[in-house]
Amino acid sequence: MPFIFDVFFIYKHTLINGAASEKQFSGVASFRTAGPHQVTSLDRLDLLKNSVQCNAGACFVRPEHKHFLSEKTLPLLCKSPWESCVTLMKAINKKISPKILPGIHPSAWIHPTAQVPNSCSVGPFVVIEENSVLGEGCILESHAVIGKSVCVGKECHIGPHVTVFHAQLGDRVHIHSGARIGQSGFGFIITDSGPVDIPHWGKVQIGSDVVVGANTTIDRGTLEDTCIGDGTRIDNLVQVAHNVQLGCNVVLAAQTGLSGSCYVEDACILGGQVGLAPGVHLGAGTSVASKSGVMHASCPGAQLAGIPAMPLQKWKRQIICLRRLVSKDRE
């Protein structure tokens, strides 16, 4: 059962002004995905692009922007919509935060052919499909109250001391030892009293035939999901931040770091220690040379190199010019 709350609960924990209502809600969602029984926020007008409509039951909104909402959406008037929404999420989190307990919870479903050592911790409503194998000391934990249960598909292999929170794995997924899947991302808002952490309620969706390297981290989304496409290969010590979308057959080499909300289309290849700025969109088949820093979107099939990253041939010409300048200085 989701946590049910009413407008009084919202007002109590966000200190906003507006008309009272007896309407009840079952959660918080993004502006794009929120339904009639959920609360959202309109903190940026670019959320309205592409004719996106708000279908939420209630929405935190500045007074001057309330006319963008339909009559079906209750306007929750405030000065800082996103900050008010985060305050509400933190209040709900205090009510429903689960505790990790050792052993296998009675509500977990484990197929008879799956192998789960006694040293593992398997939380409520976790599902482990047939022929999957867990290493020693793994922790699988759901947030069942807000519908973020862990599901491990068929023939998966999860190495020792892996943690999987709020994630769904396809079939034949191989996660090497020490990986961390589904923890909260690096998200916070700056207030007058300092940084305030943003609760993360999304999950991680990993497709089939995916390999995740040792000590790699994949953060769950804030309100939507972090998604890893089928056939993707992720090396050791890679950071995939919240809300990242990876297409199918993507390759990420060691120590690559993807900032929040990046979108990497199918068959992209990123060399070691590549960094992507927040929200960067790489077209299908893009390849990025090692140690490059990508600040802007790329077209499909692009070849990038350098800091900031640029087309490969342009980068090569720059390197040649620099060498010539250095040679002249020595003369």
TrEMBL record:
KW Transferase (keyword) present: yes
BP-aspect Gene Ontology terms: lipid A biosynthetic process
Keywords: Acyltransferase, Lipid A biosynthesis, Lipid biosynthesis, Lipid metabolism, Transferase
Record-linked Gene3D superfamilies: Hexapeptide repeat proteins, MurE/MurF, N-terminal domain
A GO CC term assigned to this protein in UniProt: membrane
Protein's recorded name: UDP-3-O-acylglucosamine N-acyltransferase
One Pfam family, short name: Hexapep
Superkingdom per UniProt: Bacteria
InterPro entries referenced in this protein's UniProt entry, alphabetically: Hexapep, LpxD, Trimer_LpxA-like_sf
SUPFAM superfamilies: Trimeric LpxA-like enzymes
UniProt keyword Acyltransferase, yes or no: yes
Molecular-function annotations in GO: N-acyltransferase activity
